[in-house]
Amino acid sequence: MIEQRTRGLFWGFGTLLGVGNAGLFILLVIMDQRYGLFGLHVVPRTFAYLAGIPVALYYSLPFLRRAFQRMEAPSLWISCTTSIRMTLMQGAALMVIYFFLKDVQVSRLFLLTFLAASFLLTWVQIYAGPGIIAGLFFDPDKELRAVLYGHGELPHALRKYVRRASAMGIQFVGYYADESLRLKGVEWLGNT
To answer: Which of 5, 43, 47, 89 could disulfide-link to 168, CB 3.0 to 4.6 Å?
Structure first.
């Protein structure tokens, strides 16, 4: 059950990143049209640059998964490096689109501003997004309660598993094992 919840949350997180960056692009286009910040001449193919966002997400998936797995204790450093990688992928995709369109309508200043703002937005989303999404989907008042049962020696990875399950709305109330593992917040109920 935890794997299904994790998978669903991860794809929701990826969608949040994509929608956030697309929204940022559109917001910058609107701001340029209103205030003339970049001298952008918006034509229908201007929005072809949005294709760079899912491309960057796809090629950033391994790094996003690593950052997502630290949802219980997010790291500013991992969030930053993941954001840098995703922004570089996005920049590469934008330059390929720019090259193939032979676009003279889109300002390079606009694209650089978008990448810089995208880096900051992505960093914040990677750092705080998974926890916020989990909080929205998994109401603490409706936590699933579970009991662990293990025969033989349980691995030390169980501590990490219990923390991950807690973030996914599953509360372990106790466990049966051959010996006490001293799991924080989880009571040893006896031998198997």
So the answer is: 5
